[in-house]
Design goal:
Distance between the termini: 48 Å
Number of helices: 12
Largest sheet: 7 strands, antiparallel
CATH topology of the largest domain: Rossmann fold
Number of domains: 2
Strand order of the largest sheet: 2-1-6-7-8-9-10
CATH class of the largest domain: Alpha Beta
Helix content: 25-40%
Length: 411
């Protein structure tokens, strides 16, 4: 379960910002929105968080920062050029452009708190650390300052692993690949956080995930889609190995490359009710005939169900795009529910102000991004705004009482 995420000097983010999923102890509202911890910690976690802000205020860069951290943890041991090609510091300040970029994530794993972070530049890892807190006291698994390591556990084994770790590779990633038990579990915990960008919803991978889920548990996917009132009452889903026929019209050289892979493509048909005489029967249509909104809900169905059933976390940019406000509310309510018993969490950016109401979200679940005078991104929660307590949060936001709205010059 995610406790908080921090980032510094990444794209439009200059000074350190922190997105916290720790619930306020003073706010007693919407207890169904909280994850009650099973250990002796004296705080609860939030099941969801919504991030609002004007266009170009940095909402997407918060998601990109989380995505970069996760992807770098997943692949740094095999993609050593990633930091040079994809790492972008804050570029509107010459001094900060030279500084390292830092990421940090706190999470619970098997009821124990872990804190993992690293700083890096385009050449190498500057700092890296992993702590855990048995009995609420910090204990070091490893610390790293450039090429110097410190260990308090399994010193000889970890020293051997660190000697094999390159300067531009995360020790967490490398040691997990070499099956060091104290890092592999946290590596997997971070790796399993699902990040969905606003431009990836119709990429094959998300459709593939839902289709593979539908092949095993079709009834769950159909139930998810039918509750969304899409008029879908059945699906036929399978995976088909690619062939030349699937790429008709493309250049022969490209077809040759695509068919050399062992990739499979999803084949999906969805059933709608039709009238035949005095009977209602199902008629199947090709998935490509469905609306963009239906395709998005289908793409989200697999990750949504998996997270809710297994206690995972989903981070999604622009949840509301192509979706009716009531559908967005439906998706969020699935997490903010007593039925969410596994501690699943969703963090999303949105412009949908319909869900800015106290019957769905607590004040500590509502976050804003705003550009500061130096054009860097600030991140803050509604709960942190002293003296601002509106009954109608949507109206207060649109009136500019919380900031994070565009200042449009009409003349």
């Amino acid at each position: 379960m995610l406790i908080e995420f921090s980032v510094e000097n990444f794209r439009s983010i200059k000074e350190k910002v922190t997105l916290s999923m720790v619930a306020s102890n003073r706010d007693k509202s919407l207890e169904e929105n909280l994850i009650s911890l099973q250990n002796d910690e004296k705080f609860n976690l939030l099941k969801s968080a919504a991030i609002y802000g004007a266009n170009a205020s940095g909402k997407t860069n918060i998601i990109r920062a989380i995505h970069f951290m996760i992807e770098f943890v997943k692949t740094s041991h095999e993609n050593q050029n990633m930091i040079e090609s994809l790492l972008t510091p804050f570029l509107l300040d010459a001094e900060w452009e030279k500084k390292p970029t830092s990421f940090e994530i706190a999470l619970f794993h098997k009821d124990i708190k872990y804190l993992y972070g690293f700083s890096l530049n385009k050449k190498s890892i500057v700092e890296e650390y992993l702590y855990y807190y048995p009995n609420k006291r910090r204990s070091i698994i490893f610390e790293r300052k450039k090429d110097k390591f410190r260990f308090t556990k399994d010193k000889e084994e970890q020293q051997q692993l660190s000697n094999r770790t390159s300067k531009n590779v995360l020790y967490l990633s490398a040691s997990a690949q070499w099956n060091y038990q104290k890092t592999i579990e946290i590596f997997e915990e971070i790796k399993n956080i699902e990040v969905i960008s606003s431009f990836s919803l119709f990429q094959p991978e998300l459709i593939r995930k839902t289709t593979k889920s539908a092949m095993k548990e079709k009834d769950k996917i159909v139930k998810f889609l039918s509750k969304a009132d899409l008029g879908i009452h059945g699906i036929e889903a399978s995976m088909k190995k690619v062939s030349k026929d699937d790429f008709e019209g493309l250049p022969e050289e490209l077809v040759s490359i695509l068919t050399k892979t062992d990739r499979e493509i999803p084949k999906i048909k969805v059933a709608h009710d039709m009238v035949s005489g005095n009977k209602r029967i199902k008629r199947y249509f090709d998935f490509s005939d469905e609306s963009d909104g239906t395709k998005k809900i289908y793409a989200l169905a697999g990750p949504w169900i998996h997270a809710l059933e297994n206690g995972g976390a989903i981070i999604i940019d622009e949840l509301d795009v192509r979706l009716h406000p009531l559908l967005v509310e439906y998706l969020v309510k699935m997490f903010n529910s007593y039925e969410n018993k596994k501690g699943a969490q969703v963090i999303f950016t949105t412009h949908n102000t319909y869900i800015l109401n106290k019957s769905l979200l607590r004040e500590d679940q509502i976050w804003f991004t705003e550009k500061k005078k130096d054009q860097s991104t600030d991140l803050y929660s509604l709960y942190d705004l002293v003296g601002v307590r509106d009954k109608n949060i949507e109206k207060g936001y649109l009136l500019g009482r919380y900031g994070a709205i565009p200042l449009i010059n009409y003349y």
